[in-house]
Design a protein that fits this description.
The chain has about 675 residues and is an all-alpha fold. About 70% of the residues lie in helices and about 0% in strands.
Length: about 675
């Protein structure tokens, strides 16, 4: 009697709910087929259930289409709000049904109600995110995740008597899909938490997804449902990503979460695993994959400073793009990816040369900069599984792990032969072996990034190329060759300035002119050194040598003119943010003019140069006298400059005296 009563109550509840659903469906044009599916008292319980789920899924599908409609700019979220409100009503009905059937012993009824409700929560979370209702989305994600976990806990009651060799039923497929949905929702909720600046919670959610995958899941459980006509597939199609391996999303977002929270070593390892799996699965276009790989290479170079890992990634991207079909290579998307790859090779070469210079300087100074990464890393058992670490060590050497990053499915040997070595450079021959491939990639990138269409990219390319000569000079012992390389650099930067407007590219002009002035001075010093090595007098070379210093002064003055500099008005403020740099420029002009009058006193304009130098020194001192807040920052330079105008006066007197004596003789 008791059992019979339970069965009647259970049947009545479902029938009442179905009748309510169908009565609401009548008159709703968007719900297909409901006018043809009346429910009678004699209807079979399973049929009632099927009609319920069909009705709910149709209504959810309608809301999905409604949300996807394009809204006007005045009401950008109009249809999303409508879809949310309709789905809230649906959620209330399903929740009522869920409450009514809470005491039911029929696992089938409980499964389908919960499974449908999971998709409703998931949809509401997604749509609330789309219209920036993030607090509401947060709540829907929590409800969805909790319900999935409840449903998975009930799986044992269905599977305990199951024959292991029998085919899976649709409900058993459903439980498999719930595993997928849990990973899916944990990942989506983590992304939302990250957007709301709750980074640690985001990382915790992703770690839960990682642990769940390795303990309760597997690739077989993440496959899309088998038949498109089943109830499972009808619901599943509304909220599931069409991915062969949802776990790749977890790995990707774990990498991003570790990057955001400052764990850059783990970030590199996880993101590399994503790229490796994508390459092996062929689940992404070669251009997208190569672009992502190049971006990661640059991140590894900046954050971990591993030349080897960066080169491995760039070799992989080069190989993949090199193997593209002739048709693919004609696409603009490919040409840009190829140019960006070239820029990254250039950046790597530049970093190798720069750090090699710094390393040799550090050895001379008996100093050493600390590494930018942790010496060792520790991993949980789940992290080791995700990263496919074969050894179960307590600690792993960070540098060895980063260097071991590779792509086993890719043969890069052919490309490797023609690319730059990435070990520290010790002499000019080794520096040249880095520079030549760097130069090749510069020319490739420059073909795509032309000044008329990509001015910013073009400027960066040319600036990097110019800087590469600066580091190459460091390893060259022959003074004449140093002069040629510095002269080449001058030509590159002068040509760049001719192509640009000082108004539109204010900061570029400022930094480039500063570099030019320094290079002109460097060439001057090299030529003086060369003359002295030969025991030659500087006087016959006065005009040529002074011409280089005049060019340096010209670059400094052009820089000051950009900021409307007036030598006769020391009270006028320099623009905020540039004040210290421009004061340094003023002092540099005075210094160079003083150098000419001191080192080349027989130059026809030596006196004029000295007079001009005195004017610049006086301006420097007056400016600081009128800007006392800045004076303390320049105290040492100020004190060292106070006597220079008088010293130049004395130099002028000496030059004039020498000229008078020479005239008398």
């Amino acid at each position: 009697m008791e059992n019979g009563s339970e069965g009647t109550a259970k049947e009545t509840t479902l029938r009442e709910t179905t009748s309510k659903v169908n009565s609401k469906a009548e008159g709703n044009e968007f719900v297909e087929g409901h006018s043809n599916c009346p429910v009678t008292v004699e209807a079979n319980l399973v049929l009632d259930l099927q009609k319920c789920v069909n009705c709910w899924s149709n209504r959810l599908q309608h809301s999905t289409k409604l949300v996807g409609k394009k809204s006007s700019s005045r009401e950008p979220y109009k249809f999303i709000y409508q879809g949310i409100e309709d789905t809230k009503l649906l959620r209330k009905e399903i929740q009522d049904c869920f409450t009514s059937s809470a005491n039911s012993n029929d696992a089938t009824i409980c499964f389908w109600i919960k499974f449908t409700l999971i998709h409703v929560y998931s949809s509401l979370a997604k749509w609330n995110e789309a219209c920036d209702q993030l607090a509401n989305a947060d709540e829907e994600h929590k409800l969805c995740i909790n319900l999935i976990e409840q449903l998975l806990e009930s799986e044992d009651s269905l599977s305990k008597d199951r024959n292991p060799e029998a085919e899976l039923t649709e409900i058993e497929y459903g439980f498999n899909r719930c595993r997928y949905m849990l990973i899916y929702e944990l990942t989506r909720y983590a992304v939302l938490c990250s957007e709301r600046d709750n980074q640690m919670m985001a990382l915790d959610l992703l770690k839960r997804a990682e642990e769940f995958y390795h303990t309760k899941c597997g690739k077989d459980h993440l496959d899309i449902a088998n038949n498109s006509w089943t109830l499972l597939s009808k619901l599943d199609s509304l909220n599931s990503e069409k991915s062969a391996d949802m776990f790749l999303y977890v790995l990707f977002y774990l990498g991003q979460a570790y990057r955001i929270t400052g764990d850059k070593e783990k970030a590199a390892l996880y993101l590399h695993m994503v790229l490796r799996k994508q390459l092996e699965n062929g689940s992404i276009s070669i251009i997208t994959w190569s672009t992502d790989t190049v971006k990661m290479a640059m991140a590894v170079l900046v954050n971990v400073q591993s030349f080897d890992a960066c080169k491995t990634l760039l070799l992989a991207a080069t190989t993949v793009l090199n193997n593209a079909s002739a048709e693919e290579k004609l696409a603009d998307e490919f040409k840009q990816a190829w140019a960006d790859l070239g820029r990254s090779w250039l950046k790597l070469g530049l970093e190798v040369l720069e750090m090699s210079c710094d390393r040799l300087k550090d050895l001379e100074d008996q100093s050493r900069k600390p590494p930018k990464f942790l010496d060792t890393l520790k991993f949980t058992s789940f992290e080791r599984l995700s990263l496919e670490l074969k050894l179960e060590d307590e600690e792993y050497d960070t540098l060895l792990l980063i260097r071991s990053l590779n792509f086993p499915s890719l043969d890069v040997d052919e490309i490797l032969k023609n690319e730059m070595p990435v070990r520290y450079v010790r002499d000019f021959d080794e520096a040249r072996a880095v520079f030549l491939p760097l130069q090749k990639w510069f020319r490739i990138s420059k073909e795509y990034y032309v000044i008329d269409e990509y001015a910013g990219d073009y400027i960066e390319l040319v600036s990097d190329y110019s800087t590469s000569f600066k580091y190459l000079v460091f390893f060259e012992f022959d003074i004449q060759r140093q002069i040629k390389m510095q002269t080449r650099r001058i030509n590159i930067l002068e040509e760049l300035l001719k192509l640009l407007s000082p108004v539109a590219y204010h900061d570029v002009f400022h930094s480039t002119l500063k570099d030019l002035a320094e290079i002109y001075e460097s060439v001057y010093k090299l030529k003086v050194e060369k003359a002295r090595e030969r025991g030659e007098s500087l006087r016959p070379k006065d005009n040529k040598l002074v011409k280089l210093l005049v060019a340096a002064i010209g670059a400094h003055r052009r820089n000051l003119e950009i900021f409307h500099f007036n030598l006769n008005d020391a009270e006028k403020d320099f623009p905020e943010g540039y004040e210290k740099v421009l004061l340094g420029t003023v002092l540099s002009v005075g210094r160079i003019l003083g150098t000419i009058s001191h080192d080349h006193p027989m130059h026809p304009d030596a006196v004029k140069f000295a007079e001009d130098g005195k004017s610049y020194y006086k301006y420097f001192l007056k400016y600081l006298d009128h800007h006392l807040a800045l004076k303390s920052d320049f105290k040492v330079l100020y004190d060292g400059t106070v006597d220079l105008p008088e010293l130049l006066d004395a130099q002028i007197d000496r030059i004039k005296h020498t000229l008078r004596v020479m005239t008398i003789e």
